Amino acid sequence: MGVTGPRIRVVIADDEPLIRAGIRMILTSDAAIDVVAEATNGREAVELARSHAVDVVLLDIQMPEMDGLSALAELRRTVPAARVIILTTFGERENVLRALEHGGAGFLLKDTAPAELIRAVRAAAAGDAYLSPAATRHVVDQLATGRAAARADEARRRVGVLSERERNVLALLGEGLSNADAGKRLHMSEATVKTYVSRILAKLDCENRVQAALLARDAGL
Question: Is the pLDDT of residue 176 over 90?
Answer without folding.
Answer: no
